[in-house]
Specification:
By secondary structure, the chain is an alpha/beta fold. The chain is built from seven helices and 14 strands. Strands 1-5-4-9-10-11 form a six-stranded mixed sheet, with no helix packed on it. Strands 2, 3, 6, 12, 13 and 14 form a six-stranded mixed sheet that branches. A two-stranded antiparallel ribbon has the order 7-8. The termini are far apart.
Amino acid sequence: MTTIESPTAAGSGSAATKNFTDLRVTADTSPERLSAIATEAFAGFSALIDKYEITYDEYRVLKQWLIDVGAGGEWPLLLDVFVEHDIEEVNSRKYQGSKGSIEGPYYLPDAPLLPARCTLPMRGRDARQTPLVLHGQVTGLDGTPLPAATIEIWHADAEGYYSGFAPHLPEWNLRGTVVTDGDGRYEITTIQPAPYQIPTDGPTGKFIEAAGWHPWRPAHLHLRVAAHRRHPIITQLYFQGGDWLDSDVASATKPELLLDPKPDAAGRNCVRYDFVLDPE
Ligand code: DHB
Ligand code: FE
């Protein structure tokens, strides 16, 4: 008998934790700013503890749960689901170009370079899904086309798994770095992604279940669009009429990010989306 290894939260989470930890990120936060933010954060906890008269049992369950989140490598999953959308919102206020959305835990830099008209690397079983053709143009705020802009794209397969974070998938499956042509245009052929479920077998999933929430994100594509001397955008695109659009567990949908693909003669879902980049 053969068993097919099925990916787990522990697998996806710890891969995301390792990937992130390798970046060794820094920020130039002053001691005064850190002190002010931390003081208000603890004051917020204080007020909640008082308001709900948090019990010792509840405190100890919280402590164990936080330990489990760390041990399971799930901090990237948890933070990107419940916190990143506010960070993205605040930090994109000053830009006028295309709308951004959360990066999430599954970005990988340096995906293989692909020409402006391309098909993402995929397995035979992915190719049995409905083809999706996403095309359009990358321009500056004034409409100037941006040749040689890069569109990094990554998305889950029909089972909701991302390559690089699920050991059963080939490296770079459904990922690529697409370079726009001389007119800033691109045409990416991939497959229609399925809704994504936050892994239910780890502490993040257990918490969502305990609170009586659902663990779903609507089907989405992730993109990072960059060009010379432009501010890069990280965004996601969703599908009109799809499930979970109004109750995304990660609160990361926006009306500007909805696609409404139409089938062509060959039965491929086709849709145009243009990206507009601010100056850097
Ligand atoms: C998570 C996964 C995603 O694909 C995403 O876009 C956002 C968050 C997560 O599992 O935390
Ligand atoms: Fe995602």
